[in-house]
Amino acid sequence: MLEVKNLHAGYGIVPVITDVSLEAKPGEILLVGGENGAGKSTLMRAIAGFNKPTAGQVLLDGKPLQGMAPEAISQTGLRLVLDGHRVFPELSVYDNLRMGAAARRGDRAGFAAAVEEIYSVFPILKEKYKKYARDLSGGQQQMLALGQAFIAQPKVLLCDEPSMGLAQALLPQILAFLRKWATTGTAVVIVEQHLKVTAPYADRAMIIERGKVKFTCAASELEARLEQEEAAHAGAPA
Amino acid sequence: MLAEIAIIVVRGCAIGSIFALIAMSFNIVHGATGILNFAQGNMFVLGGFAAVFLANEVGVAWWILMLLVAGVLVAVIVTLQGWITLAPLRSSVEQDSWLISTVAVSTIIAAALMIWQGPFAYTVQGVVPSFRVFGVRTPGAYALAIGAMVFWYFALRIFLRRTFLGLAISALSQDFDAARAAGLPVRRLQLVAFAISGLMVGTAGYLVAPVISVASDAGLRYVLNGFVAAVVGGIGSNLGTLIGGPLVGIVGMLTAYRIGGAYQDLASLLLLVAILMLRPQGLFGRTSARRV
Amino acid sequence: MAMSDTMTASAERAPANRVSAGGAPTERTTAKPRFSSDLPQVWIGIFLIAVTGFGPSLVGNSYWVHTFQLVNIYIAASVFQNFLFVDAGQKSFGQGVLLGLGAYVTAIFFGLHGYPFMLAAAIGMGAAVAGGLLFAFPALRVQYFHLGFVTLSAAIVFPQLLMSLDRWTNGINGISVSMPELHHEWFLGLSPLTIIIAVWPMIALWIHYAIRRSKLGRDMRVAAISPEAARSLGIKPGVMRFIAFIIAAIGTGVCGVLYLPAVSFVSPQGFNVELSFVFFFAVVVGGRGQMLGPIIGIWIVFILPNIALAQLVEYRLLIYGLLTLAAVMLFPDGIVGSIERWRVKRGVTGRGEQAFRVDRFLDTLEGGKDSQPSQEIVVEVRGGTKKFGEVVAVDNVDLKVRKGEVHGLIGANGSGKTSLLNVLSGLSRLNAGSFAIKGRNATRMAADRIADLGIGRTFQTPRIFREFSLWDNLRIGIDARTGVGSADIGKLADALEAEFAEDSAELLSHGQRRLVEVMRAVLKEAEIIFFDEPAAGLSQSERANFARLVKFLSRRMGKTIILVEHDLDLVWDIADTITVMEQGRVVASGSPEQMAKDPAVQHMFVGGRRA
Asked: Touching check for C281 and chain B: CB below 8 Å?
């Protein structure tokens, strides 16, 4: 289980997120929403070790991770999938999946089984397994990026804007995959802007505003909560 | 006339394959770290010194053993240098510190060799006999240089495309953050890249010691020509170095025969300026050298 | 409203506390510590050079007179190295070549051919500049380590040429010259040569300082740090590098000319790679970019091994290398730089959440009459397609923007809005289709030319230069202006200068950084402004101010604005036309009223609206 306590982080000496706490339990999906620039990506990157938190704790099963290098954090079983469908463009699809095994070396049978599972969820990856990743569409690259994370079988998966640059129609397929993945006992955190599409797949939701937690609620209540906020906030569109 | 052409081409290609080797050793480190090691020429010269001290006028078995020793020794030194070079990059936002530190290390090695061995050029007796090409007697080390270039080209190709370690190093050069997110041990991989580059230039320096002047201040010449070979081929392209290296070698030889040996480096400099002006991405460059 | 106000208030408190140690957080009754210590450093430098340049003559020690003549020539050369290295971002390992060209060519014409010294010196200067061109021409095309190798190669080749071109250079024997009249004492033991050689590094320091304070210097620095920001301000980075190399060549050439009478002898060994390294290493050890850096650097790198430890002269190269490596590892800012960093840490700060706001300044603007969007099309895209590999970022887009309108561009992250802005500002090229700005086909125009057509833009990640004061960060907008400034903006600029001249930009929050870029585009007085998510990270009150600013720009100053923004409230409030993008395509376009009813847009509101 992932516990984040009172995390502060930023770039250089400029603070971006202040005093953020969250929990992600095995089998559960936490949806993190908020405007662009609110600090969602910074939060994910701080948890995964790309930004050094200036204060606060990141605990994976009680063990502190803050201050560790991102690759070391990944090795402990916390995996961040970066936004913008980032894959290794000059490696083949299959080799991209192989890189996922970096965080679980020496488990050949498990690797092969995981690859087969990914191929069954996203058959297009099997079809194109010899192709360079640069020759995939944005949606296929996102599937590959998730597949690479799946190979590692992390305890906690952080997924930064899986919809970025994708056709909206693809998002449910990806969310369904994440939902299924979560039920195997993985704690999943999704940062997403399409709250309405994503909420049905999530258990809990958290909204961040200007680097702080605005509120946390059950995912099913999110829409009502947002409309309530909306009403409190003057000025509807013309 | 024909003999002269033969000499220029054969020797040019052979010397050029040294440049190609240095260029390939640039590429692997540059891919994994973004660093171009200015001390690479000195490392190559260290390989030559290893031949002077470990394998002058020796038998074949000993010579082969010492080849490995030289390669490993230089690999260790380069790895250490890599560790030093990468250390400030970890914390600092200042990304040009490598440029300064590799130049500093280059100066340190040249100065240490100078203090230790003086400004003399050493010669080594090779074990591979000379042979005749188009009736021209050619030292065996020239064949070794070409052989080493071909060997390393294919070895790197297989390593970088087939093995997990090699693929991981390629992945680093393609998306550093994604590699870290995937849990690839980036620092160790970068040091492996340094080690391989050291192994390459250490063994290369050892192999060709009989036909180069092994001197404390020779490093800069080789790093320069190796860089020109890399730029001609396109930084990052090992295939390009197979053409860039021999081309630089032949231009140098041609200059030596037609104008004078003292003008070889000038010819390389002019070739470098010309290629940067006309085709900055090189022959096979994927990413343009032009950054704006 | 009440809720959001409390939220912003509490958010404002935290960062303000962080910086309150650094001075008055809100009121500025006391004088601020200076942001830049360049000027004091110049004066200290001039003082140090005066002491070492004139002092030995006054006490009559001819050994030190001679030594410090050489030291001060090297200091001047390092000053230009420093300028080239930091202000223009160019790492040159070949400055010794330029000095050598100046010295050697002067020696050849004066010493071997008996030309008058001034004429020989002029030819020597010409040679140094010609050498600089060898560096400068590749700089038009490439940068970074490529130029490092070009300059290093030149440093390797130069002494080889001096040896082998012995028909002209006298080869290894070198050339001796005698210029007794320059060594003749005038008064107080000072000779003309001593005075000239002490004054030149002072002038060099002053030139460096003056360039840094000028528009040229700021343009160079912007180009060195962020080429894409530079291009969007109409600066050509290649040309900046070219000019920098030429300025450094001239300055270093003068050092070469002075070297000749000071040393009375030139030989190839005097101009090997080591000399170039001394200048480079001195800058690193002294402190990159610091005015005093070259002086302290040369004292340490050159004086220490050559004079203080003269019995270790064999080891001097080793000492240069070790000192430099140690500096990079332990004091990456160098000696002066480390002191300066310490000063900045305790002295200069921004002022937290209040550090940069624009509302007060808006009142100073009067603007013209009410203007309304006309029917004239100023930006038009036809069938624009931009691909990255197989990923289509902009897909056959048609877009028309009318003069004077606020055009909102909305859509999910990754829907191609920013890619489109990058195409329109010339930072990336369309794979297919075309676009025109103010009726001119700009499809293949370079970014700097597009900028000079009257385009300004902001970036999602604001390009803020911590080397500059807050005011200088804004001022580069004025630098980029193509026409004559309006009186209104002039007044605004004066007010901003008075307020922010000594403030640091480093501590600004992301929202404030965005606002700085917005103001930069305003000061540029661009006719067409692209805002890339300007409101992200701003508080409600800052948003309201931003909306006021955009309305002012559009309605009172007649600017055309393209606004990429996620805050739909803001967009609906200020836009005249809204274009919705999805997956790189334009899915809807029209007035806010039409768009609010469009089914393609509906789903963006509920739930997703504040996201």
From this structure: yes
Inter-chain contact C284–B265, Cβ cutoff 8 Å?
no
The nearest CA of chain B is from the CA of C369 a distance in Å of 41
Q: Which sequence spans correspond to the domains of chain B?
A: 2-123+138-278
Task: Give domain status of residue C299, yes or no.
Answer: no
The verdict on C78 and C206 lying in the same domain is yes
pLDDT class for B86, splitting at 50, 70, 90? confident
Q: Give the chain C residue nearest B267 (alpha carbons).
A: C157
Whether residue C336 is contained in a domain is answered as no
Q: Token digits for A26?
A: 């095995």
Q: Could you tell me how many residues make up chain A?
A: 238
For chain C, say whether B94 makes contact (Cβ under 8 Å): yes
Number of separate domains in chain C: 2
Residues C267 and C390 in one domain: no
Chain A contacts in chain C segment 316-375 (CB below 8 A)? none
**Cα separation, B13 vs C408, whole angstroms:** 61
Q: For B239-265, what is each residue's pLDDT tens digit?
A: 999 999 999 999 999 999 888 888 999
| Separation of alpha carbons C484 and C488, rounded Å | 12
Output the CATH code of domain A2-86+155-232: 3.40.50.300
Contacts of B69 (CB under 8 A, 6+ apart): B50, B54
DSSP, res A101:
G
Specify whether the CB–CB gap between B145 and B208 falls below 8 A: yes
Q: Return the structure tokens found at C123.
A: 């030819």
Measured distance CA(B223)–CA(B230) in Å, rounded = 10
Question: Which of A51, A85, A93, A95 to mutate to probe the B interface, most B CBs <10 Å?
Answer: A95
Q: Do B291 and C325 touch (CB under 8 A)?
A: no
User: B169: Cβ–Cβ under 8 A, 6 or more apart, which residues?
Assistant: B28, B31, B32, B160, B189, B192, B193
Residues 6+ apart with CB under 8 A from C578: C407, C408, C409, C410, C571, C572, C589, C590, C591, C592, C595, C601
Using pLDDT thresholds of 50, 70 and 90, give the confidence band for residue C569.
confident
Most confident listed range (A65-69, C300-304, C567-571):
A65-69
The residue written with tokens 């065996």 in the block is B140
For residues C218 and C102, state if they share a domain.
yes
Q: Which of residues 216-235 of A touch B (CB under 8 A)?
A: none
**Which chains sit next to C, with 3 or more Cβ pairs under 8 A?**
A, B
In this complex, do C11 and A238 lie within 8 Å of one another by their Cβ atoms? Answer: no
Judge if ipTM > 0.85.
yes
Helix/strand/coil (H/E/C) assignment for every residue in C43-60 = HHHHHHHHHHHHHHHHHC
Domain, as residue range, for C225: 38-274
Q: Which of C274, C295, C328 is the last residue of a domain?
A: C274
Give the pTM: 0.88
Q: Which of C213, C245, C274 is the last residue of a domain?
A: C274
Who among B171, B181, B184 is closest to A48 (CB)?
Answer: B181
Residue C610: the pLDDT is: 40
**How confident is residue C120, by pLDDT bands cut at 50, 70 and 90?**
very high
> Max alpha carbon distance in chain A (Å)?
60
DSSP string computed for C189-240: TB-HHHHHHHHHHHHHHHHHHHHHHSHHHHHHHHHHH-HHHHHHTT--HHHH
Amino acid at C235: I
Q: Taking Cα atoms as reference points, which of C347, C281, C62, C10 lies closest to residue C189?
A: C62
CB contact under 8 A, A238 and C389: no
Q: Is C204 exposed, middle or buried (0-12, 13-18, 19+ CB in 10 A)?
A: buried
Q: Which of C140, C138, C164 is nearest to C149 (CA)?
A: C138
Eight-class DSSP state of C415: S
Tokens standing for residue C353:
């959440």
CATH number of the domain bearing residue C560: 3.40.50.300
Residue of chain C nearest B223, judged by CA positions: C149
